Amino acid sequence: MMGSRPRRAPPPWTPSARLHRLALILLATILAAPAACGDPTYAGEDDLKAQRLLERAAALCALPAPPLSDEAPVRVFLLAGQSNMLGHGLPGVLPEACRRPNPAAMIWDSPSRAWRPLEPGERFGPEIMIGWTLRAEHPGQRLALVKHAAGSTDLDEDWRPTTEAGQCASGRCQWPALVEAIAQSRAALLDAGLDSLPGGIFWMQGESDARRQGAAERYLDNLTRLIDALRLELGQPGAPVVLGRLSARLPASAAPFNDQIRAAQDDAAADPLVAAVDTDDFDLEADQVHFSALGQIALGESMARAWGRLRPAGEAPTP
Fold it and tell me: Is residue 297 one of the residues assigned to a domain?
């Protein structure tokens, strides 16, 4: 009787080995970050889809750091909006390579009035993957992010340009603080002897305006006015603007006029230097309003890639 032949291990890239490798990476990510297990939507996310997102993010963050140009000006980006720009992402869900300080990017810290390395804190928003994606697609470029966001704020009142502090009916006017952050961050760059150039604007907002019919009907005019004011404040009339379009999955109870806001955002993107990023497929937390950590990873990467396809006038877009 012939002895049974030992089973040979499958080649490195057979489907079974591939799935095994994906499972090991996913398990390592969760074990490295127990907090991620507390995210109620993480466990329900399609494993393969989530892992592809995490693998792509890990690859972006792990790229070797090229020398930063000492001659090119620092590219400054403005990030603004409400809670989904503020971010609820648990940093432990990020691949390990993305949790370290970004060697090419810094972010403005308004309380301390100083620039600090771009890295996740207790929670993170789209800024982390915006920074890593821009670094990967534009190697050698120094990046500076100025982020100002506040939850439950609307464009109809709270973000109205030129509104003085304390004049909002809600008492939460955001424009004065936003303008102050832009001015202070720019001055800090000059004090450090760094030339700067406006890069563009990332805007994730609209959920609060989707609660009221009047605010939803005025959203396109308000958004157009805000974009014009921000471009003027940055000193670049053609600054590219990337909008995060509201998710189609927002509950009707939380955003009854969501369709009007989404249509207004699409209309604003008729400007050749404005893009609206589709967020319908991005992972949400249990409330179906806020992006989870996985959703924030997807949002940041998508926004940065959309900016690369716009680029300021006179610059070649990223393929």
Answer: yes
- In the chain, the number of structural domains is 1
Residue 286 lies in a domain: yes
Order of strands across the sheet that contains 274-277: 114-117, 105-109, 143-149, 74-81, 196-204, 241-244, 274-277
C-alpha–C-alpha distance, residues 97 and 161, integer Å: 38
3-state helix, strand, coil in the chain (%, to 5): 40, 15, 45
The residue segments making up the domain with residue 147 are: 17-310
* Cα 67 from Cα 140, distance rounded (Å): 6
- Write the CB contacts of 202 (distance below 8 Å, at least 6 apart in sequence): 77, 78, 79, 80, 85, 126, 130, 241, 242, 244, 303, 307
Q: How far is CA 310 from CA 27, 33, 239, 305, in A?
A: 37, 36, 9, 9
In terms of Cβ atoms closer than 10 Å to its own Cβ (0-12, 13-18, 19+), residue 50 is buried
Model pTM score:
0.84
Task: Please enumerate in sequence order all residues whose Cβ is within 8 A of that of 136, keeping only pairs 6 or more positions apart, or say none.
Answer: 60, 63
2 within domain boundaries:
no
Over 60: is that where the pLDDT of 211 sits?
yes
Q: Which two tokens stand for residue 263?
A: 């249509």
pLDDT tens readout for residues 238-261: 999 999 999 999 999 999 999 999
DSSP 232-285: HHHT-TT--EEEEPPPTTS-TTT-TTHHHHHHHHHHHTTSTTEEEE--TTS-B-
Q: How many Cβ atoms from other residues are within 10 Å of residue 88's Cβ?
A: 20
| C-beta of residue 257 within 8 angstroms of C-beta of residue 212 | yes
Residue 294 contacts residue 50 (beta carbons within 8 Å): yes
Domain CATH number, residue 232: 3.40.50.1110
Q: Domain for residue 276, yes or no? A: yes
